[in-house]
Structures are given as C-alpha cells and as structure tokens.
C-alpha cells in the first residue's frame, strides 16, 4: 500500500483483516497519524501546482504542432514533434542532464524578465543543418566544431521558429522572443542560481531517419508574473470582453503607427513628349488650377480634404479647410 489509491485486492485484504480481528480500526487510525509527516526536499522546491503544469503542457503541445509544420516546410522532409514530459527541477539538475557539447539557444521573451533556454540534441541539430545544406539529413555529431556559416544558418532557422512560440503563448501573454546568443557548452551558462526551480519541457523530435530531444528550460522568475493565468479558471473563463478590449487597443496602436502617403495636388497639366524633353530650368508649366483656388489633399490616392497653400516656419505647407465626402467609397 505504497500509494494513496488502493487496488481492489488491497481493499479486500483490509476488509478481511478487519473481519477476522487481525487489524482494528484503532490501528488504522494510528497508522494514518504516522503518515501525516512527509519528507520535503527544499532543493527541489515545487513552485508550480499540477494544474499549472497541465496548462504549460497544453501551451507547448500547441507549440509542438506549430513547430512540426514549420520544420517540415524548412527542412523539406518528414518531421514529427510531440511533448514527452513537463517537469519542474533545479536548474543545476537540468544542466547536468544535457550533454557536455550540445546546441543551446538563449533568448529573451519581453515583456517577461529573464532568459529561456532551448537545448537541441546534437544528433538533431546536425540533421537539421545537413538538410538545410541539401543533404539527406545525416548527423556527424560534431557540434563542438560549429563554423561561422553553420552558426548563422542555425541561428536564422531558430529565430524564425520564435513566431510559433509567440503564437502558442498568445493565449497566456503577448511575448516578443528574440535570440541573444547560441552556446555549445552548458557549463558556460550562468543565468540563475543552481537551486532555482525551472520548468523543463522535453520534446521528442523525428527528422527523417534521425531522432532526438529538444528541451526548453523556463526559470520560475520568467513565469512568475503570469502564474495566476495558468489556472483552470483563467483558461475556462467565458467573459472575453476584457480580451476584446485589449486586442482592440493593440490594433489601434498599430494602426496609428502605420505610414500613409499624403499628397497635396497643385493641379494637373498636359504636354507633348517633345516639350517634356526640352524642359529647362526656369520654364513654366501651365496647370489647370488657378492660384487662388484651393488644393485637393489625397491620402493613399484617395481625395480626403480641401486645403489652401501657404508657409509654416519657412517651409511650404497646406491648411485643411474642409473634408471631402465620398472618399470612403473610393476606399472600397
């Protein structure tokens, strides 16, 4: 009876012992009291509940599906990725569990603080590199000899994959991940304290005939601001009004930063090709608009405003005097 849940055979054995008098109810109570004290290892502090771990698992299962599509397109071969496990362990234990020479991408995820690690097994890393270089996907497993060209190719591959991470995390928080460095020796990584709790998401990945692991290491300090959002109540809430307002605000900010070409037309004119070829400095071109007539201001080739010409701080300018109707129809 080592677990909390008894099997049917154990239940039958207990009932039999009670009925024959081999064990009394008082003995069972005393046994329960002795089990109230549990050993707790402070070096393996559990910062996340099972509910929160399940939420992280769902997020990265979606990430695995997006990565499968991305790598299949980039490598032009069969790729399969799935989540193998999600555990919380000390950072030191994670560093000891990965090979001495491997491929480690270190990236930041603003607005969250801290760094996240993506460790790629050498067998998989060089299988990817061989496919990108036009090979069959074999792996020489020489990750300690990355050249500058190989580093640039792998950096570009994983930087573009961060779009999938951004999409997978979008239900939790809007992040903007970017690569800060690529390392091959985990002993050189001094991100956080060795005893700091980290969440390690392990992926099984198959590329053609090669297979291996990709591990994502997320320190507790990175996830701390969004820990309340990992609860079931957050994921199952039906009120989406706040989310809609937030999305509208983001969309509005992006629209306000969008550049628009604005042109104030002085007028139009016609001339022959021969006259155009003979134009010289000082020549006058006749337009179809009088000097005292207002100008038409076009926004993105659509007439929107009536304005009058003038100067502002020794620069040519126009002053809007009227809005034009019917411009919206031209937009369509």
Please give a structural write-up.
This protein has helices spanning 8-20, 25-34, 50-75, 91-97, 122-132, 148-169, 220-223, 232-236, 241-256, 273-277, 327-331, and strands spanning 79-90, 103-108, 115-120, 178-183, 197-207, 210-219, 262-265, 295-299, 302-312, 315-323. With 332 residues, it is of the alpha+beta class. A six-stranded antiparallel sheet has the order 1-5-6-3-2-4. Strands 7-8-9-10 form a four-stranded antiparallel sheet. α3 packs across α6. The chain is elongated, with a radius of gyration of 33 Å. The mean pLDDT is 80.
What separation lies between the terminal Cα atoms? 73 Å
Largest sheet, described in full? 6 strands, antiparallel
What string, H for helix and E for strand, traces the elements in order? HHHEHEEHHEEEHHHEHEEEH
Any low-confidence stretches, pLDDT <50, length ≥5?
Answer: none
**How much is the radius of gyration in Å?**
33 Å
Query: How big a fraction of the residues is strand?
Result: 15-25%
- Number of alpha- plus pi-helical segments: 11
Q: Could you give the order of strands across the largest sheet?
A: 1-5-6-3-2-4
The total of beta strands comes to 10
Going by helix content, strand content and strand pairing, the class is alpha+beta
Helix content bin = 25-40%
What global shape is seen?
elongated
Mean pLDDT: 80
């Amino acid at each position: 009876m080592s677990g909390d849940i008894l099997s049917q055979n154990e239940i039958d054995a207990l009932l039999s012992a009670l009925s024959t008098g081999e064990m009394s109810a008082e003995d069972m109570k005393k046994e329960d009291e002795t089990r109230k004290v549990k050993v707790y290892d402070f070096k393996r502090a559990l910062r996340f509940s099972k509910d929160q771990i399940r939420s992280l698992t769902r997020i990265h299962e979606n990430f695995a599906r997006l990565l499968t599509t991305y790598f299949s397109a980039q490598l032009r071969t069969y790729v399969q990725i799935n989540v193998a496990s999600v555990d919380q362990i000390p950072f030191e234990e994670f560093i000891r569990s990965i090979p001495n020479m491997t491929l480690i991408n270190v990236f930041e995820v603003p607005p969250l603080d801290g760094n996240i690690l993506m460790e790629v097994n050498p067998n998989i890393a060089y299988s990817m590199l061989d496919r990108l270089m036009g090979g069959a996907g074999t792996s020489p497993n020489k990750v300690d000899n990355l050249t500058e060209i190989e580093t640039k190719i792998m950096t570009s591959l994983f930087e573009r994959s961060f779009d999938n991470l951004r999409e997978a995390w979008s239900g939790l928080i809007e992040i903007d991940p970017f690569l800060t460095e690529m390392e091959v020796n985990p002993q050189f990584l001094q991100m956080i304290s060795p005893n700091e709790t980290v969440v390690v998401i392990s992926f099984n990945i198959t590329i053609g005939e090669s297979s291996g692991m990709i591990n994502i290491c997320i320190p507790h300090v990175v996830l701390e601001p969004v820990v309340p959002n990992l609860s079931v109540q957050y994921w199952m809430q039906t009120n989406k009004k706040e989310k809609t307002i937030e999305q509208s605000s983001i969309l509005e900010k992006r629209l306000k930063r969008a550049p628009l070409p604005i042109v104030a037309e002085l007028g139009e004119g016609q001339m022959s090709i021969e006259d155009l070829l003979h134009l010289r400095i000082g020549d006058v071109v006749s337009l179809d608009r009088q000097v005292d007539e207002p100008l038409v201001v076009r926004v993105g080739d659509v007439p929107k405003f009536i304005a009058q010409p003038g100067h502002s701080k020794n620069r040519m300018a126009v002053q809007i005097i009227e809005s034009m109707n019917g411009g919206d129809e031209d937009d369509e």
